[in-house]
UniProtKB/TrEMBL annotation:
This is Right-handed parallel beta-helix repeat-containing protein. It comes from the Bacteria. InterPro entries: Pectin_lyas_fold, Pectin_lyase_fold/virulence. The lineage of its organism: Bacteria, Pseudomonadati, Pseudomonadota, Alphaproteobacteria, Sphingomonadales.
């Protein structure tokens, strides 16, 4: 086992740096290692071409793996992490030089007892695959905890078969809005794909997405306050929402909620299931300007809940086929 003394940390950085020194050289590989800390500090810093595989990261702080300089071709796979503030942290050492992460792959990774986030990817990061990554939150999370985070201008990133469980804030007042999401992206993100992903047990959104041209396919959200929370534009195909619930704070639960002033989505073949005593609305609209929503071939069984609840601007909804020809069972 490698404890993170100065020698271990420096040797890891040196090996990573070697990977980016020569395009002709074979990429450096870190394999079969265990990096263990005292609950603070980083594990190692990535560099272009580095492969990290079959390793463990235990009891570390903000960045078991940190991307602090522009990095291309990073591969991280077959990893176990536990007791971490963040697993992958993307923060530049030099504010004038954004640490964009490009052409990267994160796959077959399990994280347990995550306090803040499994991954945070930002700047102009692009062309990434995050696949078969499972994140389970700690019982004592930090504020604004989120399983998977995109920020700044990150674009063209695919999540495939990723899971975020239990990202629930603790310690806030009952009058506060409780954050805590499974997956989040922001307004400057573009072309983000969520394929067969799962989010459960968040105190805010399972999927809290503000990006443009987002696409979700075969995703599942269960037991989050708002299972799917949308602010931008995109398509949602064959996604399933089950029994949203509030764990505290202001704001009411919903299966699908729409916000902001530009929401425009196609919701194709949504599947909704809720117990008879769950009165969370299927579609909640709290928009500054009318949302434009097309709902196709819905399969909804939520007998105790309203189909629609409008708390601000009236939405423009197209039903394909007509609402009465879709498989919808609600309280109204």
């Amino acid at each position: 086992m490698d404890y993170l003394d100065r020698r271990t940390f420096v040797s890891a950085i040196a090996l990573a740096t070697f990977a980016g020194c020569s395009r002709a050289a074979e990429a450096a590989t870190i394999e079969g290692r265990t990096f263990q800390g005292d609950g603070s500090g980083e594990g190692l810093r990535a560099q272009s071409g580095l492969i990290i595989r079959n390793s463990k990261f235990l009891n570390l702080g903000n960045g078991a793996i940190r991307v602090n300089v522009p990095t291309d071709g990073l591969v991280v796979e077959q990893i176990e992490g536990r007791d971490l503030y963040r697993f992958l942290e993307n923060t530049a050492s030099n504010r004038s030089s954004p640490a964009s992460l490009t052409n990267f792959k994160l796959r077959q990774i399990k994280g347990e007892d995550i306090r803040r986030a499994m991954t945070r990817i930002r700047y102009g990061s692009r062309n990434g695959l995050i696949e078969d990554v499972i994140a389970r939150a700690s019982a004592e999370t930090e504020r604004y905890c989120t399983g998977f985070v995109l920020d700044d201008e990150a674009q063209a990133i695919i999540y495939r078969r990723c899971e975020a469980h239990g990202f629930a804030e603790t310690g806030r007042s009952s009058s506060d809005y409780w954050n805590g999401d499974g997956f989040s992206d922001e307004r400057s993100n573009r072309n983000i794909r969520y394929l067969s992903c799962v989010a459960t047990g968040s105190t805010d959104g399972g999927f809290d997405l503000k990006s443009a041209d987002v696409r979700l396919v075969n995703c599942v959200a269960k037991g989050n306050k708002r299972n799917f929370r949308f602010w931008g534009t995109g398509e949602v195909e064959n996604c399933r929402s089950e029994d949203p619930r509030s764990r505290g704070g202001s704001g009411k639960p919903a299966h699908f909620s729409f916000h902001g002033g530009t929401a425009k989505y196609i919701i194709d073949r949504p599947v909704v299931r809720a117990a008879s005593d769950n009165d969370a609305p299927v579609f909640l609209f709290d928009n500054d300007a009318p949302a434009n929503i097309e709902i196709r071939n819905a399969d909804i069984d939520a007998p105790g809940a309203p189909l629609l609840r409008v708390e601000n601007s009236e939405p423009n909804i197209s039903w394909v086929p007509a609402r009465e020809d879709q498989n919808i069972k609600t309280a109204d």
